Amino acid sequence: MVRAASLALTMVALLTTQVGCKRSKHPRVSSYAPPPVPAGFVERSGTGWRIATPAAWKENMQRGPAAWAAADPQAVDDFRAQASVFTEPFAGESFDYAQANEVALRGEPRATIEATREEVIDGDPTLLIESRWAPTHPASVQYRTMQSALASRGAGYVVTCSVAGVAFERYRSTCESIVRSFAVER
Fold this sequence. Notes:
alpha+beta, Protein Transport Mog1p, Chain A, seven-stranded antiparallel beta sheet, three-stranded antiparallel beta sheet, 3 helices
């Protein structure tokens, strides 16, 4: 009987250890409360996600590889500030997806990462990455991006706010509001 009880306790300890090993390295923040939609912003949504952008920004019908995009109707330095959402299959956690995106950005010859910091967006620990992008050709302009990545239900989502380099500081609070408003289905 003692031997059976000892074996049972050993099995419980083994199972507890195995479950503990499978725990998230970056668990969701259970006390997270989403930020209120800023004045002058509207909520927009797509399959599995939602975001808040300035009400004046117009949805782009030709959005290239993005799942969704919207742009400021007023250009600065021949560049319209824009917000975009990209999706792709990803089975891991938001933080891991953000790190993978940071590695990809560091390998992009036109991009220079200016700042990376850990943030909590939609309750998930993730990264907020600011980058500077070189022009694609002599007639284009340098631009900057602020982006973050979330993962849920087997999908990875990247939200990006892009602005002409000369106007980034003017748009910083707008970009932060856009990125911080991003949320995905759980």
